[in-house]
Amino acid sequence: MSSHFLDPETNSLVDPQTFERESHDFLTWLKSNPGVHVSPKISLTDLRSSGAGRGVVACTNIEEGEDLFSISRTTILSVQNSDLRTLLAADLDELDPWLSLMLVMIYEYLRGESSKWAPYFKILPSRFDTLMFWSPAELQELQASPVIEKIGKQGADEAIRNKILPIVKANPLQFQPPNYLESWEGEVAANALLELAHMMGSLIMAYAFDIEKPEDDDDQEEDGGDDGYMTDDEDQVPKGMVPLADLLNADAHRNNARLFQEEGTLVMKAIKPISQGEEIFNDYGDLPRAELLRRYGYVTDNYKLFDVVELSLKEICQAAGLEDAVVESQPKLQLLEEFDILDDGYVISRPAAENSVHDIFSAELLALLTILTQTPSEFNAQKSKNRPPKPRLESAQVEILQRALWTKATYYPTSISEDEQILAQLPYVAEDASSRRKRMAVQVRLGEKETLSAALSMLEHHLTQVTEHRKRSASNGGETRQAKMPRV
Ligand SMILES: C[S@@+](CC[C@H](N)C(=O)[O-])C[C@H]1O[C@@H](n2cnc3c(N)ncnc32)[C@H](O)[C@@H]1O
C-alpha cells in the first residue's frame, strides 16, 4: 500500500473512511466553484491497495466524446488566480513559471483554511517516490541509468535558497512561518522551507498542466519539464494545478480521456467509450520508465516499450579510439557541430519486432559514426564538400557501436537474469518505501539492459546482412552494390 497519503498529525496512513470523506469534501468544494461541472457518471476511488493513490472511475457506461467534467479557469491554482499576484507582482514577474507557481503554492498552503484551495491541498500527497527524494543508497539501485544525472536536486536546492527563500524572508506577513518556527531566519527555517518547496515542486512536476492562453488551440498533456524542476527556455509556458484533472492516473495503453483547453474552461472528455467500473486514464506521453520514475515516482510495465538506452558522445568517441570528446580538439566533431548535428548524447530506443536499424539508431548517431570511421583523406574530402556525411551503418560503424554498447553494459553490475531473479523476489506492491523504490529501480535498470541487449542483437543481425550482401556483391562482380545494400 502506498504511504503517500499520510495523516500529517499522526504520520500514519489515512484510514479508508477519512480518505473517502476527504474525497467527498474535495468534490463538494470543487462543485461549489462557479463554472465547474462534474458528471454524475464519474467518482473518485481509493486505489492505494494497488499503489495508485486516488483515481477516477466510471460509475456507469460513458460514451466517446462525453464531458466528464469541466473546470473554470478561475478555479485553477495558478499565479494568475492567487492573491499573491497582486501582493507580490514584481517578485513573481522575476521568477520562471515553475518557481512562481511554487511560491504561490507555498503562500496558499501556509494560509491553511483561509486559502480558497484548502480542500484541494487536503487531498494532495505530501510524500513522493520521485527520484528527488531517494537516498544515495536507493539511487545506487539504478546502477548506470543516466536518469541519475537528470534529477537536478542540487540545482533545485540552489534555486529555492537563492530565489524563493529571500522573498519568503522579506514578506513574513504573506508567508507566516508554521507554528514550530518563530521566523524564517536560520538554517532550521531554511531547511523547513526547502522541504515545503520540494513538496510543491514535486506536485507541479507530477500534477500540473501547461495552461494555454485561451486563443491557443493545441491540446496539452501534463508536462514534467526537463532536468530537476527547472526547465529550458522553450518550456516557459505558465503552469497551473487543475483540480480533479490531476486526479486521473495515467496509462500508456488504456488512455481514455483527455483535457481540452477551451476559452473559459478546461474540459476533460472521454476519448473512447468507457465501461462502468473502468478507471479513467490520462496519458503522460511516450516516457521511458526512467523518466516516468523521475517525474511521477512510479513505473508500470505498460511504459516498457518506451525504454531507451543512452550513449554519451564521450562513450562513443572512446569506443572509436579518440583521445577525448572535446569539440575544439577534434576536427571531426567540429565539422558535425558546424552543421548542428552533434549531440552530447544519443538515445537508442528499445527495438520492437517491426523496427529497422533506421528506427533505432538516429541519423545523427549514424553521421557521427560515419565521420569517426573516415580515413584522413575521406575526412578531407568531406570537409571540402562542405556537407555533413551521409549516414552509414556498415561493419566499421557497427563495430564502434557494439563496442560502446558492450562497454555500457559493463557499467551495470548485475545481469538481466540476476535482475529478473531479484524482481521475482520483491513484493509487487510494497508498503515500505525502500522495497517499493528498489522494485522500481530494478525495473528501470532491467529495461535499459534489455534495450542494450536488443540493440546489440539487431546490430548483429544487420552485420550478417551487410556481410552477406558484400559476398553476393563480390561474386556478382559488384553489380548489385547499390540496389541491394541493406537500408540504414
Ligand atoms: C496526476 S497524479 C494522479 C492522482 C494520484 N493517483 C493521487 O492520488 O493524487 C499523478 C500521480 O499518480 C500516481 N500514478 C499515476 N498513474 C499511475 C499508475 N498507472 N499506477 C500507479 N500510480 C500512478 C503517481 O504517483 C503519479 O505521480
Outline of this structure?
The chain has 2 domains: 16-288, Alpha-Beta Complex (set domain protein methyltransferase, domain 1), CATH 3.90.1410; 307-484, Alpha-Beta Complex (set domain protein methyltransferase, domain 2). The chain contains 18 helices and 13 strands. It has helices spanning 16-31, 84-87, 89-94, 97-110, 118-123, 136-140, 153-170, 187-207, 289-296, 313-319, 331-338, 357-360, 363-372, 376-385, 395-410, 416-425, 433-475, 481-484; strands at residues 37-38, 42-46, 54-58, 67-72, 77-78, 209-210, 239-241, 249-250, 257-261, 265-270, 281-282, 308-312, 345-349.
Q: Helical element count? A: 18
Structural class call reads: alpha+beta
Provide the CATH topology of the largest domain.
Answer: set domain protein methyltransferase, domain 1
- Cα distance, first to last residue? 48 Å
Number of strands: 13
The low-confidence parts are 216-226, 480-485
Oligomer: single chain
In the CATH hierarchy, what is the architecture of the largest domain at level 2? Alpha-Beta Complex
CA-based gyration radius:
26 Å
**Spatial sequence of strands, sheet with the most strands:** 1-4-10-9
Strand fraction equals 5-15%
Counting structural domains, the number is 2
Question: What summary fits the major beta sheet?
Answer: 4 strands, antiparallel
Morphology: globular
User: What is the CATH domain class of the largest domain?
Assistant: Alpha Beta
Q: Helix share of residues?
A: 40-55%
